[in-house]
Give the backbone structure.
Amino acid sequence: MERRGGVDGRENYTSISIDALATSFRNKMEELPEIQPECCIYRVAVRRMLSNKDVYTPHVVSIGPFHCNNKELKGMEEYKLRYMKAFLSRTDKNLDDFISVIMGMEKRARNCYSEKIDLSVDEFLKILIVDSFFILETMIRKPDDHAFYLPDQVFDFKTDLVLLENQIPFFVLDNLFQLAFPEYPPMQFLETCVNYMVGNILLMKDSSNLLRKVKEYLNLGHEIKHFVDLLRILHIPLALTTSSTNVYELIPIPNALQLQEAGVKLLKVGSSDSLIDIKFTKGVLEIPVLIVQDYFELLMSNILIFESCHYACETYIGNYVFFMQMLINTDKDVDLLIHNGIIKNLLGKSLFVADLLNKVRREAWIWIPSYYLYDISKSLNAYCNISRHKWKATFKRDYCSTPWMIASTTAAIILLTLTFLSTVTSFLAL
C-alpha cells in the first residue's frame, strides 16, 4: 500500500490505496451468501460442540452435507445404496423420475442449510438422492428388519436421525414418497414418520393423538422443516397459554420436596398430547409424564439448539427444561416424581436423572418474554407462602398418611373429646 509522510508526523494514505481497500471490502461483502428464508438446518456452536460432541455428531451414518466427508462414517455408504435399491423395488417409478424431481428441489434444499455448501450441483444431488432414499426405506421397514448386526449400531443409527446437523429437509422426503406411492393419501408419509418417532425415539405406545395434533398444526399453515422440528412439534401444544402480563424475569420456584411440604399436590396429567402442558389449579400441580431414557440428553439438546436458532422468541422447550430443573435439585426430588408417576426413569439411579436435567439445562436458550410458566411460578410461590397450607400438609403427613394412622388419630381425638366432656360434666355437677 502506498504511503506518504504527513506534515504532522503521521502517515497519509493516498486516495488510490483507500479506493482499493474499500473496493476489496465491497467485493467481499457482495460475495457473502444471503441468509435464505428456507434456512432451518444449523451448525452447532463450536463451544457446545467442544464440551459435548457426542450428542451433536453422528456415530454411524451421515445424513446431508455437513458430515458427508467424515471418513469414520464411510462404511455406511454401502448400506445406504442397499436401502436405496430396496426402496426402488417397492415402486414402479424409474430412478430417472426421482432424479428429475430432486433436481427441481436442489436450490431450495441447498438454501435450508445455514452454511454455504461447498459442493457442486452434481455432488449435492448425489447426497440428496442417496440419503433421502435411505431415510424413506428406514421409515417403512419393520423395526427388526435392519442392516446392522450389532445392537449399539442400531441404537446409534436411530439417534443419528434426530441430530440437528444430520438432516434432510422434510419437503424433499415427502415429495419423493408421494412420487413413489401416488395411490397413498397425501398425509401418509407424515403418519409414517410420526409413528416411527413416537415408537422408536419417544418410546410411546399410542401416536394417534399426536398425529392428530401435527395434522392440525399443518392445517394452520405451518410446515415441518425436518425431523428435529417434527420432534419439537410433538412436544408442544397447538395453543399455549402464555402469561397474562408482560414477563421481565424468570421466577425461581421451590423444588418438588419443598412444594409437597408446602401442601402442593404433584400429579401426572391424566391425558395430554404435549410434554410441556403443565397446569396449577387449587393447590394441584399437574405435569405430563416425562420418559427419561438413554438418549434423553441427545434428544433434548438437539431440540433446544434448533429452538434457539429457529424459534428464538418461542423457546417453549427451553422454558419447560428450566422449570423442571428447578423442581429437581436432588435424587430425592426425582424419587418423589417417580412415585407420583410424573417421571418414568429408564436409566436406573435417580441421581442420573437429576444430573441429566442439569446438563440439558445448560443447552437451553430462554427468551424471557415467552416464558409461558411465569403465571404458574407466581401462583406456586404465593401458595407456598400461605402458612395454613403447610400446616395442613404436615398434619396429613404426620397423622393421616396411612389407614392405621388415621384410625389412631381418630381414636385419640375421640378419647380427648370424651375426656373433655367428662371434665365439663364433673365441673357442672359441683
